[in-house]
Amino acid sequence: MIRVRKADERGHARHGWLESYHTFAFADYYDPSFMGFRALRVINEDRVQPGQGFGTHSHRDMEIVTYVLDGALAHKDSLGNGSVIRPGDVQRMSAGTGVAHSEFNHSRSELVHFLQIWIVPEREGLPPSYEQRAFPAAERPDRLRLVASRDARDGSLEIHQDVDLYAGAFSSDAPVEHTLRPGRHAWLQVAYGEVAANDRLLSAGDGAAFSDESVVRLVVPDAAEILLFDLA
Hints:
This protein is mainly beta. It is built from no helices and 21 strands. Strands 1, 13, 14, 15, 16, 17, 18, 19, 20 and 21 form a 10-stranded mixed sheet that branches. Strand 17 (about 185-195) and strand 18 (about 200-205) form a beta hairpin. The radius of gyration is 17 Å and the shape is globular. The two termini are about 15 Å apart.
């Protein structure tokens, strides 16, 4: 079974300095049909104006993954971390028992465009932690590159949930397949371009949930960037 979530059906918030699209219910946007998918709780597509951002705020008991599409995002947190996240970087912050952080557009002249993802951890009360790693485009051409997993295999970030997160940048129409083990589910999020997923054409901002499917089969007509979540 495949359930498509079209980009123009998402929640939308505009705050002047921030434009945000919510795949799942978030903040003032409530959709009982899309409260999350398996352990995946939030996918927000955010665009933040130059020099603007989210002031210091707190989280707890959530795995937060940030994936920058364009521009640069500055991060600071109460663990003492300070970094700039750019395209090709993936950041994971485990809020655990509590962490405060801020996120600002690092540029004074250019927009920053990124996905922020929340995943419910496998247990509450974890110690807060942080990782950031670069996954250069050369590692992701026309294939799915594992960027986060519970066991941190293949150089991926460690995430405290039974989730494998893959990123792919595609420029050819050669098909790519991802096999789902029995009992597994998948969520596909299109960041850029168009992709045919099991013969369903998806565009930028679209998502799709896969359950009771043995494979996710991807064909890209031109060029696309996607995230694929393999979920328990």
